[in-house]
Design brief:
alpha/beta; Rossmann fold; Transcription Regulator spoIIAA; six-stranded parallel beta sheet; 13 helices
Length: about 425
């Protein structure tokens, strides 16, 4: 490995993966590696995988084949959720040299030092029950907004989801460490931090109060600090002008969080709240922890306190046993709901999930048709939301980078603005008349 000097990364999946890839990149750069673009030649290629959908698995294979054609002598490292769930399957892909599971991805430097091209594929993985450490991660330089991981893993067991098997139990950073990371990010001139996690609202920071309180007969005393308390502390940070909540479960989005955001100048009026289905029958089969009535209640409170707030929703179409009537129930619920946009996912079968036991399966062509219907609804929702704010002046944070002489940015309430590039607006918050 002494001759290896360059590394390239590719990230599949969520904002959490992007924050972790950025951290892995900084770790290797500090060891003397030169970071390259993925399409360039590099001595090492690292693919950080997702496994939420079948397409993510296929894309990983496609990327490895691309590397093999371009740079057959380079080392290929696969990490992320797919690597934890199916390490042996990945090891059988021609060209893969190293597979790093959830517990080993942040030990990448040590593993690379022991790796040579031509050796048998090395798998470094463990039972997910053994994964209990939290590794702090955030993205810097890659984009104007920084993704900051504050929570990892999930204790929920939704019947369609592999994430608990890929990332382990819910665990969080401490509030003190999050604040330290935010201050470090601020030094890089970052204006906006997006808080990320697998189940962000489940953030729990257990602190030991024993040193400051009498032990008494009860022994050690501890207290859990939650996501609301994290937001309260972040709101006081100097140097960061915007915080955005990436995604939060409706049952964990409390009234006090909504009220706090409504009165905060730093936490943006934008919530992304997974719904998955507008049918209570399907929500039950999915093992979601709420009903549609609670979801509507949360949206109603947000819009009462912040009529200008953007609200996004995740929806899965074609879940096993979803009838035409179930889908119509979802469509009608979303159509009537005062939300701004949808992220629509076509259900795909994942190994070792309870959803595989639910029959009948929805034909694939029906799943795709339902996806198309909801994507059209999402487009209309976003058009309507944007038009509601026409004529207003809102603050837009423009990206550092531009494409084809154009630059883009987002308002506080997540309306995308595209305009001819002006250097003085790069990474600046600008008053913009919509």
């Amino acid at each position: 490995m002494s001759t290896t000097k360059s590394v390239a990364f590719h990230t599949l999946g969520c904002k959490l993966n992007y924050s972790e890839t950025s951290t892995l990149s900084r770790m290797l750069e500090s060891e003397g590696f030169e970071k390259k673009e993925f399409d360039d030649f590099a001595d090492v290629y690292v693919i950080n995988t997702c496994s939420v959908t079948e397409n993510a698995d296929k894309e990983c294979r496609h990327l490895v084949r691309r590397i093999q054609r371009k740079a057959p002598e380079s080392l290929v490292v696969i990490t992320g959720c797919y690597a934890q769930l199916k390490p042996k399957e990945i090891a059988e892909i021609p060209g893969v040299d190293l597979v790093l599971g959830a517990a080993e991805k942040f030990n990448i430097v040590a593993h690379l030092k022991e790796l040579s091209k031509g050796d048998a594929t090395k798998i470094c993985s463990c039972d997910i029950e053994e994964v209990n450490n939290f590794h702090s991660s955030f993205s810097v330089v890659d984009r104007t907004r920084t993704f900051l991981k504050v929570q990892d893993g999930c204790d929920y067991n939704c019947s369609f989801c592999t994430i608990p098997m890929a990332r382990g139990k819910s665990r969080s950073n401490s509030i003190e460490n999050v604040l330290q990371n935010a201050n470090e990010i601020a030094k890089n001139g970052v204006k906006e931090i997006v808080l990320t996690g697998v189940n962000l609202g489940d953030f729990r920071d257990e602190i030991d109060l024993t040193p400051t309180l009498s032990r008494g007969e009860g022994g050690a005393i501890s207290q859990n600090r939650n996501f609301f308390q994290l937001l309260q502390e972040l709101d006081k940070i100097n140097g960061i002008e915007r915080f955005r909540i990436s995604s939060i479960e409706p049952n964990l989005l409390t009234n006090e969080i909504i009220e706090f955001v409504a009165n905060s100048k730093k936490i943006m009026p934008h919530f992304h709240i997974p719904l998955q289905s507008g049918s209570n029958k399907i929500l039950g089969l999915m093992r979601r922890r709420y009903k549609r009535e609670l979801y509507a209640e949360r949206v109603g409170l947000i819009k009462t306190l912040m009529p200008h707030c953007a609200i996004g929703a995740d929806v899965i179409v074609g879940f096993p046993s979803e009838t035409g009537e179930d889908f119509k129930e979802t469509f009608d619920f979303l159509h009537a709901l005062d939300i701004s946009y949808l992220h629509v996912f076509t259900y795909s079968e994942r190994d070792n999930t309870k959803a595989l036991e639910i029959k009948p399966a929805v034909p694939m062509n029906v799943r795709h048709e339902r996806n198309k219907t909801l994507r059209n609804l999402s487009y209309m929702k976003m058009q309507h939301f944007t038009q509601l704010h026409a004529g207003e002046t809102r603050k837009v944070l423009f990206e550092k980078f531009s494409n084809n002489d154009m630059m883009e940015g987002y308002t506080d309430n997540y309306i995308r603005i595209t305009t001819p590039h002006r250097k003085e607006w790069s990474n600046e918050i600008v008053d913009w008349k919509l």
